[in-house]
Specification:
Chain lengths: 266, 247
């Protein structure tokens, strides 16, 4: 059975537990618990070999000079996760019913459900925060030249994620079905309709017909909570895999110590 | 970027990576701190700004002026700047689509191996320009009143004359703008041209009394302003005065 060795956290030698004296077989309850945990992890690892992937992901090196600008991507993903979690809770109460059920269900969430307006507010403002973070992350990538070789494909995936984020916001805006969302969406769909060639078809697809009707809302709802989140999760996975594979860039002004310098230091 | 430049970059990057620190725990700690900041700001925004629900959607209203979410304001504003009907598709679809394609293909046409922003003057200038342009359009979009606004100069003769007529003209302009007339009528640069007739030069076609009569007793589907005439006659008179000055 392969033994999994837990990586030692970087703490001073004084604080590290002393090794047991040779020959002593006494094991405390703590050792038993640790042993049980390790063997459970080992059991999973023996069947999946997942520890290699985890080690590859977590213990890869990030280049010298990595600073706070490099947290924008992960915090965008965090905002996405927050949207997913709050969205699930909202979906438990929401009804995509254009005849008045949608509006009523949001009112119910706001007024009756425990912490309902709080979760609704987190979802609503979380979308603004996510859009801001997406743009900041993109600006960092642009100004640091991080989209250049060998990370071109990751930039393309990122732009697709930006468009999907905007599509999320557009489809989500209709769901409360108040005046604001209804009229803004009518205008938005009509704007799509002015596009060349595919424009009219796109509008018909979004509206589920030539008129803004009862099925439009459920269509927006399905796009908002099934189609786009699925696509985004898959693309975020690919984006993340490539980040780990290619490594994050160093800030463009950071230079590696030349071998000559290293020798001087040594 | 040619083969030599690619190899040079990869070599340099390998060195930088060697001199770096492990992702866990160093980068994870920073990411975690940033995630906490994000979570906290979302929670605070939710607590202080709430999630108010507006009035229920009513497809029969025509006076409601649509507002998109704030991060679409720049598109909204672009649409308003470009007014000629044959150029509208350019604003709605053309420019955004071109921008998207340019964004997608960025790594394929920017083949300069240099990465420092100060040594890529064109890219850096373009980036700053785009940020400023979007910021400006968003700001303008946030302050614009959509179709409930009339951008019309007060005629100089009226300004010179002054007095109650000028006052009525200004009040009337506001009343007309808020009454949703522009859902069907075009006034100068604002409003929809149709189904109602243009009001830009209505005074050349109708005398003041006829305008007043039409407002009270219109042809369908225009709504009657009789209720306004009875409840707030001064507002109604201001409206008539304003319209009767449009030549």
């Amino acid at each position: 059975m392969p033994k999994l060795k837990l990586p030692a956290p970087p703490i001073p030698a004084k604080l590290n537990p002393r090794p047991a004296r040779p020959g002593s077989t006494k094991t405390g309850p703590l050792d038993v618990a640790a042993e049980a945990g390790i063997s459970a992890v080992d059991w999973v690892d023996e069947r999946t070999s997942i520890s290699g992937a985890a080690r590859w992901m977590m213990f890869r090196k990030v280049p010298k000079g990595t600073n706070w600008f490099y947290t924008l991507g992960s915090s965008t993903m965090f905002a996405f996760l927050s949207q997913a979690v709050t969205g699930v809770f909202l979906a438990m109460y929401y009804r995509p019913d254009a005849a008045g059920g949608a509006y009523e269900s949001i009112r119910y969430i706001n007024n009756e459900v425990f912490l309902g307006e709080f979760v609704h507010g987190m979802h609503k403002w979380g979308s603004s925060v996510m859009v801001i973070l997406v743009f900041l992350h993109m600006a960092r990538t642009f100004f640091f030249g991080a989209y250049k070789y060998p990370r071109e494909l990751n930039w393309v995936i990122g732009v697709a994620l930006l468009i999907l984020t905007m599509a999320m916001s557009f489809t989500g805006y209709l769901l409360p079905f108040d005046q604001r969302s209804y009229w803004a969406t009518i205008v938005g769909v009509n704007i799509n309709g002015t596009g060349p060639l595919v424009g009219p078809y796109l509008s018909d697809f979004l509206r589920a017909g030539p008129e803004f009707g009862a099925t439009t809302l459920s269509r927006f709802y399905a796009i908002h909570m099934l189609l786009i989140p699925g696509a985004m999760a898959a693309l975020i996975g690919a984006h993340l895999y490539m980040v780990a594979k290619l490594g994050t860039t160093a800030p463009p002004w950071i230079k590696a110590d030349s071998p000559v310098k290293k020798e001087e230091k040594a | 970027m040619n083969q030599r430049e690619k190899e040079r970059y990869l070599r340099e990057y390998a060195l930088l990576k060697q001199e770096g620190k492990p992702f866990f725990p160093y980068a994870v700690a920073k990411d975690g701190a940033m995630a906490a900041v994000v979570m906290l700001s979302i929670i605070l925004m939710s607590l202080f700004l709430g999630a108010e629900l507006g009035p229920k959607a009513d497809p029969t209203t025509t006076t409601y002026s649509p507002r998109p979410e704030w991060y679409f304001f720049f598109l909204f504003e672009l649409l308003k700047i470009i007014k000629p009907a044959n150029l509208v598709p350019l604003a709605t679809i053309g420019i955004p689509t071109i921008c998207m394609i340019l964004l997608f293909l960025l790594p394929f046409y920017d083949r300069n191996p240099e990465r420092r922003p100060e040594r890529r003057p064109i890219a850096t200038t373009a980036g700053i320009f785009v940020i400023l342009a979007m910021g400006y359009l968003t700001y303008e979009g946030a302050h614009a009143g959509a179709p409930t606004q009339i951008d019309m100069e007060t005629p100089t003769t009226l300004v010179a004359a002054g007095g109650p007529v000028l006052e009525q003209f200004e009040t009337g302009k506001q009343v007309v703008a808020q009454s949703g007339c522009q859902a069907c009528h075009i006034i100068g640069e604002n409003g929809n041209d149709g189904p109602g007739p243009p009001l830009t030069d209505i005074a050349t076609r109708l005398p003041k009394q006829a305008i007043s009569r039409t407002l009270v007793n219109p042809t369908a589907p225009m709504p009657s302003y009789k209720a306004l005439q009875e409840s707030e006659p001064e507002k109604f008179d201001a409206m008539v005065t304003f319209l009767s000055q449009l030549k």
